Amino acid sequence: MPRDSRMSRMLHVLIHMDRHAMRVTSDEIARMLGTNAVVVRRMMAGLRDEGYVTSEKGHGGGWALACGLDAITLLDVYRAIGEPPLFSIGPHADRPDCLVEQAVDARLEQTLGEAEALLMARFGAISVADLAADFEQRLAQRPARADTLCTGA
C-alpha cells in the first residue's frame, strides 16, 4: 500500500513559502514537488479553507501564507488535508463471526485508537515553525553548496 505523502508535501511547501517565496504559483509548487498543478490546487485548497494560506488568480497571483508558521501545527495541516488514515492495519471483516477474530479486532481497535490519540496530541504540540527551525539548523551545519535547497521532488 503506497504511503499518503500529502501532509509531508504540504509541510514542505509551507516552509518553502515562508523562507523563499512570498507568493508562489501552483505551477511552481508542482515543479518543486514533481506533480501536477491540479493536484497542488486540490491539496492547497484545504489550507486556504482553514485560513493558513490565501490564493489570488491571474497575473501576479498565486499562493501566499496568511499567518506565521508558529500559528500552524502539524495537527492543523493534517486536518486541512482531510485527515487521511494514519494506519494501514485493521480488521479483516466488518462483522466477523469468529470469536477469536472479534477479540483480535477489539484489541486492535482499542490500541490503534490510543495510538492515534497520542499522535494527534503530538501533532498539536509541534508547529510548522518548529520544523522550519530544524531546517535552519541543518542548513547552518551543511557546507555551502549550490544544491542546498530543493529543486525537485
TrEMBL record:
Domain of life: Bacteria
Species of the source: Acuticoccus mangrovi
Pfam families on file: Rrf2
GO molecular function, one term: DNA-binding transcription factor activity
Protein's UniProt name: Rrf2 family transcriptional regulator
GO cellular component, as recorded: cytosol
